[in-house]
Specification:
four-stranded mixed β-sheet, about 40% strand, alpha+beta, extended
């Protein structure tokens, strides 16, 4: 996740991901089964965050650190206002991340459809 966007030909593969989502439920008979399954395309967003800390004399100091968020790519594209650090560049990267994930899933799409996997824009269950 710390590799840069331009690390590899095709750009964005190092920040692209897919999160598997599986909902299981225990039935009345005590058996556990899969109720729903799917995947969500993700993007590793990096931004700088200013944090405060106390030095050895008790004085507040600040330093900037890199922070990482794993964003649901489609939801962040649809609702960027719900996520911190979304710039125009991040929106472009999110678009590429979603496309890259679909390429990866597309190679296995026939097998995935046997399992009736859905693509979710964000976490679907409460």
């Amino acid at each position: 996740s710390n590799m840069g966007y331009g690390y590899r030909i095709g750009h964005g593969y190092t920040e692209t991901g897919i999160l598997a989502l599986v909902k299981i439920k225990r039935g009345e008979d005590g058996k556990v089964g899969i109720v729903d399954a799917g995947y969500m395309t993700t993007y590793c967003s990096k931004y700088k965050n200013k944090v405060g800390y106390l030095d050895s004399r008790g004085k507040t100091r600040y330093r900037t650190i890199k922070a990482y968020d794993i964003l649901p790519a489609q939801d962040a594209l649809s609702h960027p206002e719900n996520y911190r650090g979304i710039s125009k560049t991040t929106l472009r990267h999110l678009t590429v991340a979603a496309a890259n994930s679909r390429k990866v899933v597309g190679k296995s799409a026939a097998k995935l459809m046997l399992f009736k996997l859905n693509e979710y824009q964000s976490y679907p269950w409460q």
